[in-house]
Amino acid sequence: MDKLSLKMDLCGECGGCVAICAFEALDLESQGLRIKEELCIRCNDCVVFCPSGALEITDKE
Ligand code: SF4
Ligand code: SF4
Question: Which of 16, 18, 49, 60 is in Cβ range 3.0-4.6 Å of 3 for a Cys bridge?
Fold first, then answer.
């Protein structure tokens, strides 16, 4: 199943993806960006938005 994943070393923690996700599937916490997989529908919006290329949808079982 597809999965949204974060390359933490690329994330500048700008918070933009948190703001644009219509499903509230992202949170910026003190440890960094957190993906709430149960809310994410893998629409790809945050992947396209991220100015750092830190998010990607990968094919994982
Ligand atoms: S938009 Fe990209 S750089 Fe900004 S918080 Fe999200 S993943 Fe990190
Ligand atoms: S893929 Fe879509 S639903 Fe999932 S976190 Fe990104 S913007 Fe939100």
Answer: 60
Q: How many domains does the chain have?
A: 1
Ligand at minimal distance from the CA of 3 is 2
Domain coverage including residue 13 = 2-59
| CA 52 – CA 1 distance, rounded (Å) | 24
Q: What distance in angstroms lies between residue 23's CA and the mean position of ligand 2's atoms?
A: 7
Rounded to whole angstroms, the Cα distance separating 61 from 11 reads 24
Q: Cα 8 to chain center, whole Å?
A: 10
Read off the pLDDT of residues 20-32 as tens digits, 9 standing for 90 and up.
Answer: 999 999 999 999 9
Strand partners, 6: 55
Domain harbouring 11, CATH code: 3.30.70.20
